[in-house]
Amino acid sequence: MVTSSGGTRVEVKTSPLHGRGLFASTDIPAGALLGVYPLLILSHEDIEQLKPTRLYHYVFYVDEREDGAVRAAVAFGKISMCNHSPDANADFYVDAEAETVTLTSRVALKTGDEILIDYEDFADEAL
């Protein structure tokens, strides 16, 4: 388990949705900080090489060049276990300058709730 500065606890467990997932191990109020995780930002060229691999399912969008080439990042830590839902109960914010991704609860979570994020434009490619 990891404790963020806000005192909330999350844990990785088997998910009924897909493999493993991130779960609340305590009740968590809406808007709570769940964690700030480091990113390894990859070049546009690295992403192209990563697309046919399983690791591509775990990247976070960073930005896009004018020619449409995407730059993304691999997140380290438990956030990489968050599964997708269009009805997400958590939000994430990628800060390319700080090379971090921040995870917060969108709604109040009960102990045992799976923490879900919306993969947005990456959902079709990642699932």
From TrEMBL:
Record domain SET: where: 8-120
Pfam families to which the protein is assigned, alphabetical: SET (PF00856)
PROSITE patterns for this protein: SET (PS50280)
One GO MF term attached to the UniProt entry: histone H3K37 methyltransferase activity
Record-linked InterPro entries: SET7_MeTrfase (IPR009207), SET_dom (IPR001214), SET_dom_sf (IPR046341)
First and last residue of the signal peptide: none
The organism's place on the tree of life at top rank: Bacteria
SUPFAM superfamilies with a match to the protein in the record: SET domain (SSF82199)
Stated name of the protein: SET domain-containing protein
Originating species: Hyphomonas hirschiana VP5
